[in-house]
Amino acid sequence: MREKLRDPDSAQFGGIDVYSDRKLGNVPIQVACGSVNATNGFGGYNGYKDFLLVNVGGIMLIDSDRNNGKFVKWWNQLCAGKHAP
Q1: For the purposes of burial, counting CB atoms within 10 Å of the CB of 78, is it exposed (0-12), middle (13-18) or buried (19 or more)?
Q2: Second label for 45, Cα 20 to 30 Å away, from 4, 7, 35, 59?
Q3: For the chain, what is the total number of helices (H) and then of strands (E)?
Q4: Cα(58)–Cα(15) distance, rounded to whole angstroms?
């Protein structure tokens, strides 16, 4: 996660949950869902953004205006609600 940030040392994390009962297609996966705040190119903090990390395929998404539709779909599928093992 840190390698994707402009200033990895500035990262502040909050509300991280890890789930091992999720599936992507029919493949069992682990996913970490949480929020991160880090400095931008001007040295200021942007505010917390939700993120998700999937242990298969190195998938990492951060909520943003650019990929919001894709992020919301994945967040709802993998992070929201209860899932059966």
Answers
A1: buried
A2: 59
A3: 1, 4
A4: 21
Structure tokens at 7: 């200033």
Is residue 34 a contact partner of residue 15, using CB atoms and an 8 Å limit?
yes
Q: Please say if the pLDDT value at position 7 is more than 60.
A: yes
Domain count, the chain: 1
Q: Is the residue at 54 inside a domain?
A: yes
61 close to 34: Cβ distance less than 8 angstroms:
no
Query: What is the pTM (predicted TM-score) of this model?
Result: 0.80
- The string of pLDDT tens digits covering residues 33-70 is 999 999 988 999 989 999 999 988 778 888 876 768 88
84 within some domain: no
Residue 73: inside a domain, yes or no? yes
